[in-house]
Amino acid sequence: MDDNLQKNSLLDRFLNAIEKAGNKLPDPAILFLFLMLLTWMLSALLSPIDFGEINPTSGEKLYIQNLLTGEKMADFLSRMIAVFINFPPLGVVLLAMLGVGVAEYSGFIPAGLKYLLGFTPKSLLTPILVLVAIVSHTAADAGYVLVIPLGGVIFYAAGRHPLAGIAATFAGVSGGFSANFIPSAIDPLLQTFTQSAAQIIDPEISLNPLNNIIFTGLSSFVVIGVGWYLTDRIIEPRLNRTNPVDQDLTDVPKMDALQPAEKKGFKIASMVMLLGLIGLFLWAVPDNSSLRSPDGRITAFSAPLMQSIVPLIFLVFWIPGVIFGFISGSYKNSKDVIASMSKAMGSMAHYIVMAFFCALFIDAFTQSNIGAMTALKGASFLQSLQLPSQVTVVGIIFLSAFVNLLVGSASAKWALISPIFVPMLMQLGISPDLTQAAYRVGDSVSNIITPLLPYFPLVVIFCQRYVKQTGIGTLVSLMLPYSLYLLVIWTIFLLIYWTLGIPLGLQSTYTYPSL
After folding, report:
1. What pLDDT score was predicted for residue 1?
2. What single-letter DSSP state applies at residue 170?
3. 439, 409 in Cβ contact below 8 A?
4. For this UniProt entry, which segments traverse the membrane (predicted)?
């Protein structure tokens, strides 16, 4: 017992130090502004240097672009509105929150939570939430705007610390981004880059888009296990000691017993939601469905269904929310519906401000090529070491995790470094399927500790709903144990998986040429 208390005390001191240091940083919006200014200065200092790297996507030399020239400054000003408006998470978050806001403030979501808590054991809430978070990858970025805030609401309703629920779901949605039982759009997207890189060595090679699906499916158990253990045994006990929930919460759903009108409204609204989902399924099933991509795939990024995920989330929650509101009596007229949507947008005001500065920083960082140069330099260094194959695979995981702190997009990073990693490991006898699996592990585990993740500020906002003093440091200290545990345990899992020879996916191999 004394040893456990000592371990908890040491861990608390370590994480508290991280939280304290992180929370001394400026407001996230100002932090992104400072990072943008720093990027400008570094771009000017580094632009004269020839780093000797070739951009594999263009075949030309890669240089750091000086963003402090008159031409670049004029370009920055002329594109500022477009950069802000086209910032990918902005539209996703706002449109989804319009629908989810109606479903929450009408009482539809709280009613569903009451039913959920009625038959789900309190001890199993964590693994169920992490599982739902993992499955949410199938619906693009839906997990960030839907599952993560619900994690906080569910834990709060169950009498548990809401930030623990947010942390568990964030770990599943983002830290376990490459774990999923269900194929998603990211599978064929990464496969296309892997195949192109492999064809540098073997022009005739062809990879299955689901070449990692078995590994990512079984990896879900790793993420669930890590998330369950850390949340219940480490994260939540520490939160109860150091970050008590605010006592003046006013907009969090209450878990009073359902009234007859609410029960009726929930049943009818749920039936409408179910019928809508069935109709969507029947629409998507035919091979010639207008929801499929031109080549007939339903999970391709170009498929209208995948492009419509967020509007569908809006409709799937807005329509049942309105129906529930009028049947239960929480809505009297259409003004109440609009008031709910306005309230949901009001809660996003701080996020919109942060998104403005975040969008400008990420655009500047991308334009400067600093992130791309870091990725290529790291890959070249790893290649120069000429390590044994197992050590090289582990090196790829760790390098991918590090680069992910600077370049958030999984496809953008892989487009840059796959032409180095994949051919290099093929010459060591390692298949492109295994190299891609190693990359996916590293690409996932550090998502949850980098403020450069576009959705990171949004998760801070979700936490501030329950603990107002939550800052970047608070969230990083919450998520750091998940990141480190996943990095180590998932890496070991891949090595054991490789040793046992379990198939990585469809038509996948471990060796090249295939034996």
Report:
1. 44
2. H
3. no
4. 29-49, 81-103, 115-136, 142-159, 166-186, 213-231, 265-285, 305-327, 348-367, 387-407, 414-432, 444-463, 484-506
Return phi, psi of residue 262, to 5°. -70, -40
**Residue 190 phi/psi, 5° resolution?**
-65, -35
Running DSSP on this structure, what letter comes out for residue 233? I
Facing residues of 511 across strands? Answer: 430
The reported pLDDT for the residue numbered 7 is 54
Low-confidence ranges of the chain (pLDDT < 50): 1, 5, 515
Distance CA 450, CA 440 (A): 17
Q: How far apart are CA 439 and CA 186, in angstroms?
A: 13
Q: Which of 428, 370, 432 is nearest to 403 (CA)?
A: 370
| Radius of gyration in angstroms for the set of CA atoms belonging to the chain, rounded to a whole number | 24
CA trace torsion 234, 238, 240, 245 (10° rounding): -110
Q: What is the pLDDT of residue 515?
A: 46
Bridge partners for 430 per DSSP: 511
19-47 in b/e burial notation, b at 16+ Cβ within 10 A? beebbeeebbbebbbebbeebbebbbebb
DSSP letters for 46-100: HTT-----B-TTTSSB-----TTSHHHHHHHHHHHHHHHHT-HHHHHHHHHHHHH
Residue 110 contacts residue 253 (beta carbons within 8 Å): yes
- Return all residues near 455 (Cβ < 8 A) that are at least 6 apart: 89, 93, 141, 144, 174
Q: In this structure, how many other beta carbons lie within 10 angstroms of the beta carbon of residue 149?
A: 25
d(CA 173, CA 236): 18
Q: For residue 450, give the amino acid letter.
A: T
pLDDT tens for each residue of 365-387: 889 988 778 877 877 787 787 77
CB < 8 Å & 24+ apart, contacts of 425-428: 425/389, 425/392, 425/393, 425/396, 425/512, 426/198, 426/201, 426/202, 426/512, 427/201, 428/389, 428/392
Six-digit token pair at 48?
């004269």
Q: Which pair of structure tokens corresponds to residue 244? A: 């008590």
DSSP letter assigned to residue 467: -
Q: Collapsing DSSP states into helix, strand and coil, what is residue 430?
A: strand
Stated pTM of the model: 0.75
| 511: phi then psi, degrees, rounded to nearest 5 | -115, 160
DSSP per-residue string spanning 269-305: HHHHHHHHHHHHHHHHSSTT-TTS-TTS-SSSTTSHH
Q: Smallest Cα–Cα separation from 56: which of 420, 449, 384, 475?
A: 420
Residue with tokens 């949507």: 341
What are the percentages of helix, strand and coil residues in the chain, rounded to 5?
70, 0, 30
Strand partners, 54: 61
Distance CA 157, CA 110 (A): 9
Contacts 24+ apart (CB under 8 A), 474-478: 474/19, 474/22, 474/23, 474/243, 475/22, 476/18, 476/19, 476/22, 476/449, 476/451, 477/15, 477/16, 477/18, 477/19, 477/22, 478/163, 478/167, 478/235, 478/239
